[in-house]
Fold this sequence. Notes:
Layout: H1 13-24, H2 36-41, H3 48-59, H4 66-73, H5 80-84, H6 91-105, H7 110-122, H8 126-139, H9 145-148, E1 170-174, H10 180-183, H11 186-197, E2 200-204, H12 213-217, H13 221-241, E3 247-249, H14 252-258, H15 261-264, H16 272-280, E4 282-284, H17 285-291, H18 293-302, E5 310-313, H19 317-322, H20 328-335, E6 339-340, H21 356-359, H22 361-376, E7 382-385, H23 388-395, E8 402-404, H24 405-412
Parallel strand pairs: 1-2, 1-3, 3-4, 5-6, 5-7, 7-8
Helix pairs in contact: 1-6, 3-6, 4-6, 11-24
Amino acid sequence: MQTYLADFIKDTPVGREADAILRSCVHCGFCNATCPTFQLLGDELDGPRGRIYLMKQMLEGHAVTTRTQLHLDRCLNCRACETTCPSGVRYHRLLEIGRAVIEQRVPRSPAARATRFLLCEALPRDWIFKPAVRVGQLLRPLLPAALADKVPSAAGRVRRPWPRPAARPRRMIALAGCVQPTLTPNTNAAMARVLDRLGIELFEVPGAGCCGALRYHLNAQEKALDDMRRVIDAWWPHVESGSVEGFVMTASGCGAHVREYGELLRHDPAYADKAARIAAMTRDASEVLAAEQQQLVELLRRQGDGSGQRVAFHSPCTLQHALKIRGVVEALLTAAGYQLSPVADSHLCCGSAGAYSIIQPVLATQLRDNKLAAMRAGSPVLLVTANTGCQTHLQSGSKVPVRHWIELIDERLGAAT
C-alpha cells in the first residue's frame, strides 16, 4: 500500500510506525472473513480492510467526520483479523494510533464524552466501582432492562478464601485488577489454591490497581500509561529483590495488555527497561499450569476420573488472538475430567471487549447472543471462559452458569472449601 502521510504525523515515532503498518497491507480482504462486525453489518467500512483505508486517508490529511469515528468505534479490537492476515499487519496498533488522532480531530457529543469520562474514572477505581455495583444490585428491579442487564446479580457464588500462608520456595504475583475483585472475586483465590497445591505461593500486591487496558482502549492513553507505571512501581521491588519468578494473569485481557508494556512504554526513559522486564515475566494462568502439567496431572489422577461434566469453553479474543494461546485451557480441562462441548465459530468475539458492551450495546448484545447459542448447542451444564469481561457479559444473557476455568480445576483438586 502506497502512503503519503501528512506533515502533522509523518516524521513522528507513531507516524513512522503507522506508515510501516499501512505499507504491510496487501488489500487481500482475508481479514473481513473473520471480523465480527463485518459479519453482522456486511459493510466494508466495518471490516479491517475498510477501516485501514479510513485511517490511511485520515493520516494523509483528508477530512474526517463522525462517520469515520463511528466505523472505528465499532471495531472490537478483537484481533481476529491479525490471526487471519497472511501479511502480518499489526492492525491493533494502527487502530490505537488512528483512534488517538481522530479523538483530537472529531469532537464527541456531550453525552458520549460524559459516558467515556465516567467509564475512565469509575471502572479503574475499586473504591468507586464496588459501591456503584452494590447500589446497582439494590436498584436492579427498578432499572431499565438495558442497564439492569449490565449489573451482575447479587446472588452470586460465595467467595472462597485464599490458602493459608505457608513458606513456599516459589512465589508469583497475581494482578487483582480493577473490576475483577468485585465481579468475579473467586478467580484469583482459585488460582492461588491450585498453585498452593503445586508448591507455589501466589499473592497480590496492594496498590497495583488497573493494568491500564480499559483507559487505553477508550483513547485516554496518557491516563492509561500512568496506570501502567503504577503497576510497575508496585511490582518492581519484588523484581529487584528476585523474590518472585513471574506474574500470573487470570484475566486474559489484562495479560494481553501487560505483555505489551515494553512496547507501549518504550519511549519513556524512566520506565522502558522496567516495562520490558515485567512484560517478559508475565504469564497467562494457562501457561503457568501448562508448565506444571506433569505434577498437576498426577494430582488430578489421585482425585479420580472426575465427573465428566459437559462444559463449553469460550476462548477470549485476548487469549487466542492477542496472546496466541490456543488449546491449552481445553487440554487442562480435559485432563481434569471435563468433557468439552464443541463451539461453532469459536474464533468470534463474544462482544464484551472491555467497555464495548456499554458503548456499543446493540452490536455487543448480538455478538453475545450468537456466542451463547453456539456454546449452548452441545447442551453443556456449564459455560467456561478465561476473562472477567467475557464471563460477566456472557452471564448477563445466560441462565446456564458462566465460570472461569480455573475454578473448575480448583474444585477437581479438592482444594475448594
